[in-house]
Amino acid sequence: MLALLAQSPTLAQGSTLLAQDPTLADFGRDPWWLILIKVVFAFIFGAIGTVLGVWFERRLVARMAVRPGPNQVGPFGLLQTLVDGIKGMLKEDLLPRASDKVVFFFAPTISAIFALTALSVIPFGPVVSIFGHQTPLQVTDVPVAVLVILACSAVGVYGIVLGGWASGSTYPLLGGLRSSAQVISYEVAMGLSIVAVFMVAGTMSTSQIVAAQASGARLSLFGWEPSWGYWPGWYALLLLPSFVIFVIAAFGETNRAPFDLPEAESELVAGYMTEYSSIKFLLYMLSEYVAMLTMSAATVTLFLGGWRAPWPISLWDGANSGWWPLLWFLGKVTLMLFLFVWVRATLPRLRYDQFMRFGWKVLLPVNLAWILLLAGGRVAWSGNVESGTRWLLVGGMAVTILLIGLLWPARKPEKQRSVAEQVAARPTGSFPVPPIDLVVPPSPRARRVVAERAPANVAIGSGESGESETATDGRGA
Amino acid sequence: MTAQLAVEAISTGEAWVFWTLGPLAVLAAIGMVVARNAVHSALFLVLVMLCLGVFYVVQSGPFIGLAQIIVYTGAIMMLFLFVLMLVGRDASDSLIEVLRGQRVAAILLGIGFAGLVATAFYRALQDVPAQGLQTANVPSNVHGIAALMFTRYIFAFEVTSALLITAATGAMILAHIERRRDQRQTQPERMRSRFAPGNYPGPKAGPGVYATSDSVATPARLPDGRHSERSVPQILPKRELTEAEAAPKGTASPFGRGAEYGGGSTVSRRSEYGGGAAGRPDDSAGNHVPAAPSVGQGGEGR
Q: Which residue is closest to A144 within chain B, CA to CA?
């Protein structure tokens, strides 16, 4: 079952020469101007991504709500966000008297800076040639690149928390408090879901994780290895529970619906950004969308094969070389953004206690059990354990789970009360309800239709009916 | 040990990072002690931790550096902030010494403790040969740490984690208020009691908004003409509006401000509460000048 897990990811690198996978040694050798170009590219990716992301979200949500959405400024309303941004920047910058001035000023910049920093370890593509230099399409990579993403998203929340606190007002403070509790809880779930990826890929560097997803290991059924049988390369399929938990935690980490409790407009006005205006408010907007973009890019990198072409395209030999992978990468990121927007348009916001319970009592235990299973499987199929012992272990585990499932105390079903009993149990002064045996009378509208139509079959009544019809028409006109 | 370390030259970048962030970290540490606001103290500590994280990374310990930032800065300091924010924004430390000589004793003890730790480390590490990064980070930094943590130091880590879990569970039990199952009010029950008879589930009516007054002190009117007591906040003092306050504002008058004009004693009380066209006062300018509505006396009618 888990034979693939025991195999080293380097085994599956038959096609990597063609794909020009960068190794860790390829990083840190660029001339300074190339580094500058890459950094500016990552920054512009974040900024343009925000501008287009807001437009994308508004158009998509509008489409799902059967509205046109922004369509006036520029083709398809593309420039709407730009115009809104310019207008926002020209607005008056208010500084509340009760605020903590220094912290109030720096909080939005913290959010924006750390959201943008995380983009530096995202692999946008393989090794390409820029002005004659062979260089990977990634600002930099370190052996612990995924931890950099986690750290950036963890520290970026300081912007939200401090902004809420420094505003010196109640609703922002509540938003900041919610945000801090939320991020701590969902960071744990997110970190644990990545552990599975680390175990299977055997590395924490983003470019190597992408390389490890190039193709799956050989499928092995009791020693029989069919020539067509491969495990899926993408960790989204291979480690489905981790993928699902990671995406859910990403929603919580980026404060997106249905987990947008820190800025719940029906409860907290606008949460932590209530007191913010002008360019500081825009910085919060920017950091929210860049964080969404970063999380989408991280999901794509960790679980969806990174910049590698998806299946039908990957049949073409040149799909994973040159600049094409940038296109696949952007396409996958757009798909993830679509998911973000789709979920926002579909799901209502969670209640706070439900949200916390979900994080700690569902995501965390499921994650731990899954990691335990995965690690156990890897050890059992690593070759150090004999076949008999292995099957004994698997059988013992299955029996234990079955026993626990069977012996789990079942909840006593509550007695179903009939409607009559429920009505009788109502306290005095309750809202009046109709009797239970009430026969619903036919709708008066329905009766009118019958009355108008009935004479149409009778010769005598036809004239009368025609009159009434014309009268109705006359009224309608 | 020192001889072997000196062999590996310090690169320019590393020196730059150290001389930039080193003073910053020291300044932030001093700021943490000196700052009077608890949240500012916490923020300075965050800065110190971030600098430490960068130092670790620069010294070829990327994993410990990032773990420092994620765990300490991202989670533990966030919890600190969480608690500090609940204390309140304006809570500052008072600098009055309660115990006499406390500060001097603290400084002396601090120096003594630092000396003790330094000596202990010096004596313990004096004869330990340095392995160098090449040996320690085989095959990589993460693998090296993992190998040590899960073989040599596994017992220490397991004991520490058991201690931490015990502490967390103990704190939870101490702070937990156990409620019996029948006393616990679930969300559906709360919802039902909200709609139970005797409780009005909707929001209270807002105060009245009329042509003459949109004050929060003006009660709303019920369908039968009575004032709704619930629409006026109970916290407001009950008082009569003066004529000037009750006069319509913003209407231009040839004789000056409307308030002045309406303040005269000729104001008719007939127009009170929408007396209709018949109740129009006989002022020459034709202004509709109503009398002051009574404030905060809802339910009594007029």
A: B63
Chosen for mutation from A114, A180, A194 (greatest number of chain B CBs closer than 10 Å) is A180
CA-CA distance, B289 to A271, in Å (whole number)?
43
- Helices A324-346 and A32-64, interaxial angle, to 10°? 40
Chain A residues inside the 8 Å CB shell of B37? 100
Q: Where are the domains of chain B?
A: 2-89+103-132, 138-177, 208-302
The pair of structure tokens assigned to A409 is 């105390």
A10 vs chain B: nearest CA distance in angstroms? Answer: 15
Write the ipTM: 0.71
**B193-228, pLDDT tens digit by residue?**
888 887 878 777 777 777 777 777 788 888 888 888
Q: How many angstroms separate the CA atoms of A19 and A3, rounded?
A: 26
User: SS3 of B291, please?
Assistant: coil
DSSP B159-194: HHHHHHHHHHHHHHHHH-----TTT---HHHHHHHH
Inter-chain touch B70–A204, beta carbons under 8 Å: no
Q: Give residues 248 to 277 of A whose Cβ lies within 8 Å of B.
A: none
User: A189: domain range?
Assistant: 14-29+92-385
Q: Examine residue A443 and state whether it is found in any structural domain, yes or no.
A: no
**Selected residues 161-200 of chain A with any CB under 8 Å from a CB in chain B:** 161-162, 164-165, 168, 173, 176-177, 180-181, 183-184, 187, 191
B2-89+103-132 under CATH 1.10.3810.10, yes or no: no
